[in-house]
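USER:
Make up one protein:

ASSISTANT:
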Amino acid sequence: MAKKPLKPPAVPAGARHQFFVYMQRLVVDNGDLSTTELGARIGHSHQAVYKALTGPKMPSRAIVGRLAEALGGDAVATEAAKLWTAGVYEERGLSTLPKLESATSKTDRRPASLRRDQEEVGGATRLDMARGLLGLSDGLPSAPQTILRSESGPASPGQAARTALANEISTLMGEVGGVAELFSAETVRSGVGDWMSAAAIPSAHSLINFTYELRLDEHRRKRLFELHAAAVKEKENEGLLRYAD
């Protein structure tokens, strides 16, 4: 029996339509595999692959990356990522890149040691620094590639879990351009800068909002919550040790 063709994307002309057409052409140009065959290659169900290729809702960044790499390698994955970002911006009503929040627009809650270290970036905001570290500055000031450290020196072992959580959040933010205003949840928009700098640990509710809006797959969502649990436990243990002194 002949393979059933993918349905045309049911979205208006624009960035989302361009994204879905590009992805469907990738399939046709690289063997015209069925969604079942593609799913087997990338570790997703055929239903998830079908939705990622036809919409109308924009798929997760993770499944797009795996599909593009399977169909054309790194160069194709890079182009697919650009089209995906434009499609997400269109879907969420973000037609232009919003201005990043000024570093002085809210109370700085970072610990003094982190604040001193990060002020070396010459006026760049925490989001600017995160994007620079991830190589996604897009014209913003690049930050020096420094590691967050405590007053006692490089990367205190007592903060290893919080640093690991901050690094994971920074990586995920880098995949969407490092822009806090991309998120609908106010707790994410206002808090993610502190999460990336390890100045604060997100609440479980805020982390749920963060993962939901990024549409993380099960593996990455599980990893993020495991890192979060470890960071919370580390912080609690630090408090117990402080009381014991």
